Amino acid sequence: MEHAASRGGFSGKMGFILAAAGSAVGLGNLWRFPYLAEQYGGGIFLLVYLILVIVCGVSLMITELAIGRRTGKSCIDAFLDLGERNKYVGWFIALIPIIILPYYCVIGGWVTKYFVEYAIGAGSDLASGSYFNDFMSASMGGVFDSPLTWFLIYALLTILVVAFSVEKGVERVSKFMMPALLILLVGMCVYMLTLPGIMDGLGFYLVPNFDDFSMKTVLGAMGQLFYSLSLAMGIMITYGSYMRKHVNIERSSQTICLMDTSVAFLSGLMIVPAVVIFSDVGLSSGPGLMFNTMPLVFDSMPAGHIIGAAFFLLAMFAALTSSISLAETVVSIFKDRWKWKRLIACGACFAIMICLGVLSVFGYGPLSGIQPLGMAFLDFFDFITNSVMMPISALAICLIVGYIIKPRFIIEEIEAEGNRFQMARIYPVMVKVVCPIFMAVVLVTGLLSYFGIYSI
Ligand code: PFF
Predict the structure, then answer these.
(1) From 1.10.4160.10, 1.10.260.40, 3.40.1160.10, 1.25.40.10, which CATH number describes the 4-450 domain?
(2) Atom 9 (ligand 1): residue with closest C-alpha?
(3) Which protein residues are within 6 Å of ligand 1, measured from CB?
(4) Measured distance CA(59)–CA(165) in Å, rounded
(5) What distance in Å separates the CA atoms of residue 389 and residue 266, rounded to the nearest whole number?
(6) Are 201 and 275 in contact, with CB atoms under 8 Å apart?
(7) Which atom of ligand 1 is nearest to the CA of 326?
(8) Is residue 219 within 8 Å of residue 446, measured between CB atoms?
(9) Where do the domains of the chain lie?
(10) b or e along 184-204 (b: 16 or more beta carbons within 10 Å of the residue's beta carbon)?
(11) pLDDT tens for each residue of 257-299
């Protein structure tokens, strides 16, 4: 068995945390978290999300990292190692990044377009209420006005980095970009607090209103938790396989969860209250929220176009580190399973990105007549992965660890080289009882209420 120590990997604790945080912090925090928070009742969504991170997020991250480090393998092979019968679980989980990557690149394309508009000084055009919808429905003519072009540019950028193995270069740049993004987010939040009328918006975001609670909210928050922390899709298993034995898995998991949640919280603080402040413009919510509100905020501030360019550039880097880690996972599945050469595996990955990505791009325009489960293609891919496949995959991981390989397998790995596992006592309960029951209940009731069959 190839072991973590012989796989080389991250140089130390900080190297590992930065790489994992690079994968975790991305569009999930900046784009997805705020629009879900707005959609699912503000404060109540925030509260449910925080509880879920503490109850399920940390335990799941510990579990995945430990499976990866103990087996020294990535997702499919790691599950094979845990028993022939688990093979299908590995395959099911491996399918998730393949579905997410294409639509992730579509949104990466929107961010790239907005960055370029600000960089060439045309940022104020974006602040007209209908800009984003016109752009999405590709009704503005011109090659550089089409979301397809920007998707292709972003997807090409992602796959080129992976094909030519220049991730290290991107990582080096993002070491500066990540802290810069954090500083900019804090600065923007401080600015937002000075805007007239902010109190109503803040109240909506920070104070839970229990009348807005439903199982749909919990299902949404749970899907977001997996997505944002890059959990339940095999990524953290792969990251774990590159982790050195002396690194403390528990402490690292807590740090990554804390970093990721802080960025999500700040993005929400920057975007959600703005909806109330700029409500007279008639902002549309949903996936376009960030692209509708941020230009209005930048338009209202001094030197807004420079800050807007900086914001979208930093968002682009955060997105790139995530899409590269997604693409890297897909490529390594092809390489490991079928022994394909790197470039061929990248070609296959790019072909899938294009096919599914084009559906997502046109789903808001020419293909809007086709609506799987009553949703546009992008929303459908997002829903099926986050709200259906990922809860199932997390449930399967917990059941396998809890009842087949047993929690000791994980605990021993965490306690390797004298590390202390503070949660050692409650971990078996979490992984055998609390997390599975929680996830099964949320998945079933959430789906029933999503489709209006039964509602709590
Ligand atoms: N966690 C990323 C985000 O919040 O944007 C999304 C993601 C990246 C998921 C990489 C999975 C992954 F492998």
Answers:
(1) 1.10.4160.10
(2) 230
(3) 23-24, 26-29, 97, 227-228, 230, 233, 235, 322, 325-326, 329
(4) 32
(5) 28
(6) yes
(7) 13
(8) yes
(9) 4-450
(10) bbeebbebbeebeeeeebbeb
(11) 999 999 999 999 999 998 888 877 666 678 899 999 999 999 9
